[in-house]
Design goal:
This protein is of the alpha+beta class. Among the domains are: 129 residues, no CATH class; 96 residues, Immunoglobulin-like; 141 residues, Jelly Rolls, CATH 2.60.120.920. A hairpin with a 2-residue loop joins strand 15 and strand 16. The longest helix has 55 residues. It starts with 7 loop residues before the first helix and ends in a 12-residue tail after the last strand. Keywords: Coiled coil. This is Fibronectin type III and SPRY domain containing 1-like.
Length: 536
């Protein structure tokens, strides 16, 4: 393919043209969204106009003898306002459509200019494009409708006004509130939205707050995947939404004020960021005896009945504790699994955990940043583990028994125990196992901490130098686990991490050494803190 050799001046023009094209493309998208807003508003003007006319006629029917003359006058007022709004919006729509056509033509011309090989023609075209962009109507338009679709300021209610029919006027409507972005707060999966009125209005009875989740940053779009949800009868100029699951990156918010008669215009909408760690169970990795759904996993003793008993016997034998080294297992070798996203595998495939490793991994890897999720076991669950592992954890290997998995383990069968496990070593934890466990991972600082999800008491912390992406990992036997994701890092956990600077009273108690360890789990009442020089 021939390449165009540009001198320094041509390169400057080329670079400027690339920026112009990007600007034009962004402007075209803005114009397209604005045209959709205008079309939507224009349609709603007609719908709402029809509705208020109908309401008006219904009121006049009961008092027709007195109100006949005023009915005609007020209906005309509505129609005039409708014509005025329609005219303003139609003019904007015409101008915006024309501007979009001009911008698209200019964008096409600019794209074609990139293929001009003659230096003189290219320079001439680039200057012409620059001049045309300066005068382009797309950059002189105000991308805000000159009229709204709200017609509630033309509604009437005669129930209290019959003695005063001769002086009847349209009801006053509250002005649109203003959301105070600096006072809005997103923390602990709660969103606090604050607003104020542009002028004091003593007749406001309540507010209506509306919100919706979205994947789009910036102003809300007319066409979005989610519908607006409403919180009615808000009495103050602030409201907190609690117990949210942040499964989208952003949320849109808008608010309107209401008096006893009508609701006013919506405030200008705002978009707040609501990022959190979302994942589910990877059913393609789960043991045959685990029944996996997106947010829950449950022990299923009938799950592996279709597997040949001889094969199962070999798998169980191979799952016995093995001596480990950096590159060798004395038992059956485990297949490597490094892909984060995999197509569904048939039951019994090689990448499923098997034998006595009743394990399932999360379907999303972590390779940077801070993350938090919670796990709640069933009350009668006999044994389970919660932690992290590398994706290449062997299919026979159990959580905490290798140098590439870290977990806390709860055993409620025969003899109760609650311990942190890694590299075939364990440390008993001197607290009762909580009803729900919070897991905090700071990948960059190499920290994995477990908390009581209810009171945020620190249970245990591992200090690790992660050498590859990690995934959430779970083991369950005779019971089930429920997963909660889309959670922000709780403020109590974040505050504790800052205070401790990554060092807790119970953390770093299991050595992160690479050399092989004994097969039997050794339980220590007290183990020395980890020497950072021994961390991998």
């Amino acid at each position: 393919m021939n390449q165009i050799h540009l001198d320094s001046q041509q390169f400057l023009f080329y670079d400027a043209l690339q920026r112009i094209i990007a600007t034009l493309a962004n402007k075209n998208e803005e114009l397209q969204n604005f045209i959709e807003t205008l079309n939507h508003t224009l349609g709603r003007v007609q719908v709402n106009s029809t509705q208020v006319v109908s309401d008006l006629e219904e009121e006049f029917d009961t008092l027709y003898s007195i109100l006949d003359e005023m009915k005609e006058s007020m209906t005309n007022t509505i129609k005039q306002d409708t014509v005025r709004k329609s005219h303003e919006l139609q003019n904007q729509l015409t101008q915006s459509t024309s501007a979009l056509e001009s911008a698209e033509e200019l964008l096409e011309f600019a794209n074609n200019a990139l293929h001009i090989t003659d230096e003189g023609d290219f320079t001439k075209a680039a200057k012409q494009i620059k001049d045309r962009v300066t005068m382009a109507p797309a950059f002189r338009l105000t991308l805000k409708p000159k009229a709204t679709d709200n017609m509630t300021h033309l509604m009437v209610d005669f129930s209290q006004e019959r003695p005063l029919l001769q002086g009847l006027k349209f009801l006053p409507v509250p002005r649109a509130p203003e959301i105070v972005l600096g006072d809005c707060l997103v923390i602990d999966n709660e969103v606090t939205v604050a607003w104020r009125m542009p002028v004091e209005d003593s007749k406001i009875d309540h507010y209506i707050l509306e919100y919706r989740k979205t994947c789009h940053e910036g102003l809300p779009r007319v066409k979005d995947e989610q519908c607006w949800e409403m919180v009615d009868d808000v009495k103050s100029t602030e409201h907190t939404l609690q117990g949210l699951r942040f499964d989208t990156k952003f949320m849109n918010f808008r608010v309107r004020a209401c008096n006893k008669a009508a609701a006013g215009d919506y405030s200008d909408p705002v978009t707040l960021e609501t990022r959190a760690f979302n994942f589910g169970f990877d059913s393609t990795s789960s043991h045959l005896n685990l029944k996996v759904e997106d947010r829950s996993v449950e022990w299923d003793p009938q799950g592996g009945k279709g597997v040949d008993s001889k094969v199962k016997g070999k798998e169980n034998k191979g799952s016995d504790c093995q001596c480990l080294s950096d590159g060798f297992r004395s038992g059956t070798p485990s297949p490597k699994r490094t892909s984060v996203t995999r197509s569904p595998a048939p039951r019994g495939a090689r990448d499923r955990f098997t034998g006595e490793s009743y394990t399932v991994l999360g379907d999303t890897s972590m390779e940077s940043g801070q993350h938090y999720w919670e796990v709640k076991p069933q009350k009668d669950c006999k044994s389970y583990s919660v932690g992290l592992a590398y994706r290449n954890l062997g299919k026979f290997e159990q959580l905490g028994k290798t140098n590439i998995s870290w977990c806390i383990h709860v055993n409620n069968w025969l003899q109760n125990s609650f311990a942190a496990k890694h590299n075939n070593k364990a440390k008993n934890l001197d607290v009762a196992a909580p009803d729900s466990i919070g897991v905090y991972c700071d990948f960059d600082r190499g920290q994995l901490s477990f908390y009581n999800a209810e009171n945020k008491q620190l249970l245990h912390t591992f200090k690790v130098k992660f050498t590859q992406p990690v995934v959430p990992a779970f083991m369950v036997w005779c019971g089930g686990l429920t997963l909660s994701t889309g959670l922000q890092i709780p403020s109590a956990v974040r505050s504790f991490q800052k205070t401790e600077n990554g060092l807790g009273g119970s953390n770093s108690s299991i050595s992160q050494q690479d050399p092989a360890v004994a097969c039997d789990i050794c339980l220590y009442d007290k183990l020395p803190s980890v020497d950072s020089s021994l961390m991998p």
